[in-house]
Design brief:
Number of strands of chain B: 0
Radius of gyration of chain A: 24 Å
Chains: A alpha+beta (about 425), B mainly alpha (about 290), C mainly alpha (about 280)
Distance between the termini of chain B: 15 Å
Structural class of chain A: alpha+beta
Number of helices of chain A: 19
Helix content of chain B: over 70%
CATH class of the largest domain in chain A: Alpha Beta
Strand content of chain A: 5-15%
Number of domains of chain B: 1
Strand content of chain B: under 5%
Distance between the termini of chain A: 45 Å
Largest sheet of chain B: none
Shape of chain B: flat
Radius of gyration of chain B: 23 Å
CATH superfamily of the largest domain in chain A: Periplasmic binding protein-like II
Number of domains of chain A: 2
Helix content of chain A: 40-55%
Oligomer: heterotrimer
CATH class of chain B: Mainly Alpha
């Protein structure tokens, strides 16, 4: 073990030398910002944006890097730990919540300054944790329902569903008449699902999701599942969307809950199904909140050089201003998070010859006003708890366990954990 | 024991030096430091404190990790399957039949496929309304679609199957190389003596493959205990924690949620299991030295 | 010359049947990917699934080249893979030789240490390794990508076993003749284990080619990523097509298959005189 100690000493010496050498002073300020899975489609958009900004702001160089969504967390974490984080990073809200709590990203209230009022209130609310704002909102998504009109006709249905109960009833009917599943809720996000139906998960620091109403919800799902109305594949997977869209494209699923961008994918991957697809707004729960709100924003990681902050603030505001958001959203079929951009007529008007994907945009825009990212904030190790809730619901829905018993067991797990986290 | 001269020692260590240095920097150091962190409450924003066995208590109390540990041990079932399968494949292709090169390549395809693609392809095959069920239904081998990945009593075996599928070609290559060492003359002499294929296989081939079998078995055992990639791309631990493995838990906690101390504690436990099992293996199978 | 020159026909048919069945199971998913990549029409996810391309064309493949810088990715993959395998063969054989055929103090200990690295799960190592690489200013360099991967216990173990098959008398004779250890290693023993070197080489090539997490962490400019990372860009959130992803996948797998087919003769030696 002597060699190991020598080596450790050698490493330390080396690192000291290396860090001295690396302390090159820069006259130019370099801002590195990361986006999530936006290449290759948005290369022209971002390149022009960057060029325009650099022309208007000499003394600042902007570096844009895009990373695949599956890997961006790992990359961010390794860079923060090594002390070389990027200036801005694309995140979604649950990640931001966890990172904010673990100290990986910093509040941006000061950086936002007066610009805060230009952002939609819902967006800012989504990004406020413990009273501080943690990101510059970029765009959001909302769910619409794409449905297979021929399967509907076969089942004797003419109108799309207006509520969850109708969705479940339609699904069972569709399966009975056509042998194909009706819909595929993303039950891995069971917490958001329940919240949308107006059922709280946590109240006063205690888990409350085993009330009679919660049990009734699970029972309703179990009935539909047993009757074949719900697609069984990947129902409880962390990401069941690929399975759902594959089933929809294969004509094996009647209703697909998807953001408008996905409706566009149906067009390329399955033209025959696209031709018989129509779009409807997703049913609102009793809360009036639309499902599928998913806010993407730019956050500032810990460890970024304080001297760069003013430049970063200016660029971040530019990145997410009305004009740029509008341009981006037109390209991506997503929705803006600034008040002015959201009111742009582009989102209200339905073009002539609207196909399913154009309709999806218009319907989505209408629903955006009532969209929030739904999950439970402010709990340590939230992901584990969520998983135990999802497991309980899975056991109840698939009939492996009595729903009340399963939910009771999960509530016990949550309460045990919450008791140790007395905030 | 022969007393070794200074010169001999020096020479040996010169040969070993580059490898040892790299091991020290990129293997021992992270493992050592990581193991130390498993006993702390390391986080990015707070100073680190020693917390003793807290992290271990936490993970053993956690349903996901406990299921994972049990499943990792169950994974050992694949070791005999892969080894026997690989030897069979190697023997089947160890000849000069026309087109045999293509068959060797075919068996190697699963090894060459990137893991993410493996996940997509097998995910699709295993769907309730996927290809496998389709074939089975057509052949009337089952009456109803089987929930390969959604039924918690068989999901683990489906994942294990994919691991076997991926590994067969890799070990086949190793056994092929090992088979080259079997001298043809021995085989011919045996044929002249009237031995049939079966006898030749057991009395000549297998004993000569012994060193390869041992090395492969050890590697296979360790790989089985450390399995996590197939879980990552196929089921992410579901349904109902049925496919969690200990290292998947470590990866999930450590790298996705940055709960490093817990992920490292889980890794540490897996290491202990690996060491224990390895020592057992080495004791029972005396390596043939020189 | 050889033993039986003609197998009974039935046995031969049985042999081929078994081979075909096993091969089918192995390449089945890959075949589906190829079909998806070549088709331009039809429903990918139709049930029952389609096993034959509809309106075949290479347009998905050209799309891949258009959408991501495939040539750069290829070049990067080739560089990283080549140097990884080169250094791996050098250093691992250097390390395996003394363990197999030399006497020295601490031999058991060193062997144990190397085995230990196999036993210890290294998947979470890359966080610490990344810090090391950063401190050594090797971020964003291929050296940083290659260094941790060039010594593995598995390769050392395999090569050690290969060295142990070389007859001891050969080595003793050479030593008696006055050759120093390096000459014995380089001129005598190493050439004798070339099938094993080829085997380790091929297995390492595939491993290096498919490795994606570590290069992704070390390199920061997307143009410098190897192919294994580059193809992930085909699944961009707002503009991906399953067919193009399938085409990209096929393009990643094919080179390795070609390498495997082309190098088989290097480790299939000793076939002369084998029973047909």
């Amino acid at each position: 073990m002597v060699s190991k100690r020598l080596l450790a000493a050698g490493l330390v010496a080396l690192s000291m030398v290396a860090s001295q050498a690396a302390q090159a002073t820069q006259a130019m300020q370099n801002i590195e910002f990361w986006t999530m899975s936006l290449k290759p489609k948005f290369v022209p958009y971002f390149e022009t944006l960057v060029k325009r900004y650099e022309a208007q702001n000499p003394g600042v160089t902007i570096e844009w890097i895009d990373f695949p969504g599956d890997l961006i967390q790992t990359k961010l974490v390794t860079r923060i730990v090594a002390g070389t984080p990027p200036a801005l990073v694309n995140l979604n809200v649950p990640w931001a919540d966890e990172y904010a709590r673990d100290g990986l990203i910093v509040p941006v209230d000061q950086l936002m300054g007066a610009a805060k009022s230009t952002y939609a209130k819902a967006a800012i609310d989504d990004l406020t944790f413990s009273g501080k704002t943690y990101g510059f909102p970029l765009y959001s998504n909302v769910t619409v329902i794409a449905y297979n009109t021929s399967l509907f006709k076969e089942a004797g249905l003419t109108l799309p569903p207006q509520s969850l109960d109708e969705q479940l009833a339609f699904s069972m009917k569709i399966y009975a008449k056509t042998g194909e599943a009706g819909f595929s809720p993303s039950l891995a996000k069971a917490d958001g699902f329940m919240l949308q139906q107006g059922l709280p998960i946590v109240k006063d620091g205690k888990a409350v999701f085993n009330s009679p109403q919660h049990v009734a919800l699970v029972e309703k799902l179990a009935v539909a599942y047993k009757a074949g109305g719900i697609l069984k594949d990947n129902l409880f997977s962390e990401d069941n969307f690929p399975a759902a869209i594959a089933a929809y494209n294969g004509g094996r699923l009647a209703m697909l809950s998807a953001p408008p961008t996905a409706v566009k994918r149906i067009e390329t991957d399955a033209k025959d199904i696209y031709a018989i697809t129509d779009v409807a707004p997703a049913p609102l729960g009793p809360t009036g909140i639309v499902d599928g709100g998913w806010l993407i924003h730019f956050a500032v990681p810990t460890g970024v050089d304080a001297k760069l902050m003013p430049a970063i603030a200016k660029f971040a505001r530019y990145l997410t201003n009305d004009e740029n958001q509008l341009a981006f959203d037109k390209l991506a079929n997503v929705f803006p998070t600034t008040i002015a951009a959201a009111n742009d007529p582009y989102f209200q008007r339905l073009p002539v010859n609207a196909g399913a994907s154009e309709k999806a945009v218009a319907i989505g825009a209408e629903s955006m006003k009532r969209s929030r990212t739904l999950y439970v904030a402010g709990i340590d190790d939230y992901d584990e708890l969520r998983r135990s809730l999802v497991n309980a619901i899975e056991a109840g829905v698939t009939g492996k366990q009595d729903p009340k018993a399963a939910l009771d067991a999960a509530v016990a797990i949550w309460n045990k954990k919450l008791a140790t986290q007395a905030h | 024991m022969m007393k070794t001269s200074f010169k001999q020692n020096l020479q040996a260590y010169l040969f070993l030096a580059p490898a040892l240095v790299l091991f020290a920097v990129f293997s021992f150091w992270p493992v050592g430091y990581g193991s130390y962190l498993a006993f702390t409450d390391y986080s990015l924003i707070k100073p680190t404190h020693w917390v003793g066995l807290d992290n271990f208590r936490y993970i053993f109390d956690n349903a996901m990790f406990v299921a994972g540990l049990r499943n990792s041990l169950l994974f050992l079932l694949i070791v005999p399957i892969i080894q026997i399968g690989a030897i069979t494949l190697a023997v089947l292709v160890n000849n000069r039949l026309p087109g045999i090169r293509l068959f060797r390549a075919a068996f190697y395809v699963p090894v060459v496929t990137t893991i993410s693609v493996v996940g997509i392809m097998w995910g699709f095959m295993f769907h309730e309304q996927g290809t496998l069920n389709y074939v089975l239904l057509q052949l009337r081998l089952v009456n109803q679609p089987v929930g390969w990945l959604s039924d918690d009593s068989i999901a683990l075996f489906a994942v294990m199957f994919v691991t076997v599928w991926r590994g067969l070609g890799w070990y086949m290559v190793m056994y092929l190389a090992g088979l080259q060492a079997v001298p043809a003359e021995m085989q011919e002499a045996a044929i002249l003596d009237g031995a049939n294929r079966w006898q030749r296989f057991w009395k000549i081939t297998v004993p000569m493959l012994r060193p390869t079998i041992m090395v492969c078995s050890i590697m296979s055992v360790l790989a089985a205990l450390k399995a996590y990639q197939e879980v990552l791309v196929l089921t992410q631990g579901g349904p109902l924690n049925a496919t969690f493995t200990a290292l998947y838990y470590a990866y999930d906690q450590g790298l996705k949620h940055l709960k490093l101390p817990r992920g490292l504690a889980a890794s540490f436990v897996v290491s202990i299991c690996c060491v224990a099992i390895m020592l057992l293996c080495l004791r029972y199978i005396k390596p043939k030295h020189r | 010359m050889n033993g039986s020159n003609q197998r009974p026909l039935l046995q031969l048919c049985g042999h081929y049947f078994l081979l075909c069945l096993l091969a089918l199971i192995c390449i089945f998913p890959f075949w589906w990917t190829v079909v998806t990549a070549i088709s331009t029409e039809g429903n990918i996810f139709a049930f029952p699934p389609t096993f034959w391309p509809k309106s075949p064309s290479l347009q998905n493949f050209t799309e891949v080249f258009r959408v991501i810088p495939m040539l750069s990715f290829f070049k990067n993959s080739i560089l990283i893979t080549f140097w990884t395998v080169f250094w791996k063969l050098c250093l691992c054989s250097l390390a395996a030789y003394p363990l197999a055929r030399m006497h020295f103090r601490g031999r058991k200990l060193v062997f144990g240490l190397i085995l230990a690295t196999m036993v210890l799960p290294s998947e979470v190592n890359f966080l610490v390794n990344f810090i090391t690489v950063t401190k050594l200013s090797l971020v964003d360099t291929y050296t940083g990508v290659i260094l941790p991967n060039i010594i593995t216990a598995v390769s050392i173990l395999l090569l050690k076993q290969a060295f142990e098959e070389v007859p001891q008398d050969l080595i003793d004779a050479a030593r008696v003749d006055g050759a120093n250890e390096w000459t014995v290693f380089w001129k005598i023993v190493l050439p004798l284990i070339s099938p094993w070197l080829a085997t380790v080489g091929i297995l390492s090539t595939v491993e290096a080619w498919n490795d994606y997490i570590w290069p992704f962490i070390v390199m920061s400019k997307p143009d410098e990523f190897p192919l294994s990372v580059g193809v992930l860009y085909l699944s961009g959130t707002y503009g991906s097509s399953t067919r193009v992803i399938a085409a990209g996948t096929v393009l990643t797998i094919l080179p390795m298959l070609a390498v495997f087919l082309g190098t088989q003769r290097f480790f299939m030696r000793g076939m002369d005189g084998a029973v047909k």
